[in-house]
Amino acid sequence: MKVLVFGASGSTGRRLVDAAVGRRHSVTAFVRNPAAFQNGQGIEVFRGDVADRHAVARAMPGQAAVLCVLGAATPLRRDPTLVAGVRHITEAMVDAGVRRLVYLSFLGVPAGRHQLSALGRIVVAPVLLRKVAADHAEKEEIIQRSGLDWTIVRPPRLTNGPRTGTYRHGEAIHASQIVLRISRADIVDFMLRQLDDLTYLHRAPAVMP
To answer: What's phi and psi for 20, nearest 5 deg?
Structure first.
């Protein structure tokens, strides 16, 4: 499948690109600085900024699906550029007739934090990470109104650990640990599975250990 990855140069994005190529997808990595991105076999690098709606639109034709793992540089402030970027992505998808979107959000958004532990619900999400949560909530709303075939993936804190393949997922699961963590490798595995599995079409599952 031909897939376009936004946020490809980030910590999660690089793992996502490598795993997608490993599963024989044809990957276009949308990045601001191609020189800093290791281009390998099966990867096409497209230079652009999500703040530039024309650049986003140029990258879209011919794609079968979009994977979005855009992340803020810091959790200490909101990033309106990324919110605008998600709007540009959804608009370009509609214009190009690209239907499938898998978006990496955060379990601390207001609609998902009931699945966290008490510490996560009361302190971490609404206080420490309130700005990240607010950005993701706004981007989720844009996606949900887009009319696309979307799946929103909501993990807790991400780590650089190995893929275990033993994670849980769903809209009715709850934290079994006070401080939840899951590896980027497991999240990448789950996101790629959504390209062919429509179980969570128009749904927002949590993914956790």
So the answer is: -65, -45
The answer to whether 76 and 43 are in contact (CB under 8 A) is no
Per residue in 144-181, pLDDT tens? 999 999 999 999 999 999 999 999 999 999 998 898 99
- Looking at CATH, the fold of the domain delimited by 2-208 is given as Rossmann fold (3.40.50)
Q: Model-level pTM? A: 0.95
Select from 191, 177, 163 the least CA-distant residue to 105.
191
> What's the pLDDT tens digit per position in 16-73?
999 999 999 999 999 998 887 776 777 999 999 999 999 999 999 999 999 999 988 7
Q: Report the b/e string of 87-103 with b at 16+ CB within 10 A.
A: bbbbbbbeebebebbbb
d(CA 100, CA 181): 27
- Output the six-digit token pair for 120: 């996560």
Domains of the chain, residue spans: 2-208
Q: What is the CA radius of gyration of the chain?
A: 16
Q: How far apart are CA 154 and CA 66, in angstroms?
A: 17
Between CA 178 and CA 118 the distance in angstroms is 7
